[in-house]
Design brief:
Shape: globular
Distance between the termini: 94 Å
CATH topology: outer membrane lipoprotein receptor (LolB), chain A
Number of strands: 11
Strand order of the largest sheet: 6-5-4-3-2-1-11-10-9-8-7
CATH superfamily: Lipoprotein localisation LolA/LolB/LppX
Helix content: 25-40%
Radius of gyration: 23 Å
Number of domains: 1
CATH architecture: Clam
CATH class: Mainly Beta
Largest sheet: 11 strands, antiparallel
Length: 224
């Protein structure tokens, strides 16, 4: 039984596609372990850098891009951390607001309404999650982060990680986080939060100071 030229052509095309697919698969199988090793190496270097950090403080600029608007919303603030569990996160513009944390107890404030309120990390799920996230990044608590996110290495110079939420609830509104580190790995340079709805929040950290003595008042809420 003879085979038509068209059938031969289709058969040849199929074999070429199979060969191409196998080549790509082989390439990926060979490439993935190397990429995984690069990620493991980066995470270990991050752990070592974090171990030497006692305090961390910086200014930051926050850019909010809303999917329904073309203009971006800008705000500025400052951040401070003292090992093991003290935080200050404060927006300075367009109006002052923020919170301080000591252990699992915190105080938040709103400069516009001139209100203050205490909260507990364990009893306030929203503030608790915000505080835990910031602490995890300040301390580079990779075990906690790896439990909550799948990590991908996007680039090595400068080091950039992509974090994809494992939790379905969080994945419902956060598509991924892109974290860029300073060249020396001692602090985060930028954070990009991509929401599933299309909104983006970009944080630029600047004037970063490491292991500078921070007075206790840094971790106290302002009086109104």
């Amino acid at each position: 039984m003879s085979v038509s030229p068209k059938a031969k052509s289709r058969s040849g095309s199929t074999e070429i596609m199979k060969s191409f697919s196998l080549t790509i698969l082989l390439f990926l199988l060979l490439a993935l372990p190397g990429r995984a090793n690069e990620l493991d190496s980066l995470l270990e270097r991050l752990r070592q850098a974090a171990a030497a950090t006692q305090t961390l403080s910086s200014d930051f600029i926050q850019e909010k891009h809303l999917a329904i608007f073309s203009e971006k919303l800008l705000s500025e603030g400052r951040f401070a951390y003292r090992k093991p569990d003290q935080l200050r996160w404060e927006l300075l513009t367009p109006f002052k607001s923020g919170f301080v944390l000591r252990g699992d107890q915190g105080v938040r404030w709103n400069g516009l309404s001139r209100e203050r309120g205490r909260f507990s990390v364990e009893r306030d799920p929203v503030m608790g999650m915000i505080a835990k996230q910031l602490l995890a990044w300040a301390r580079v608590d990779l075990e906690w982060l790896q439990q909550r996110y799948q990590m991908e290495l996007l680039q090595t110079q400068p080091p950039r990680l992509r974090l994809i939420p494992r939790d379905r609830g969080e994945a419902g509104f956060i598509r991924h986080l892109d974290i860029t580190f300073a060249e020396d790995l001692r602090h985060i340079a930028t954070v990009l939060l991509q929401e599933t709805a299309g909104d983006q929040t970009l944080l630029h950290f600047k004037k970063v100071e490491l292991n500078r003595a921070l007075p206790d008042k840094v971790f106290e809420a302002p009086e109104f």
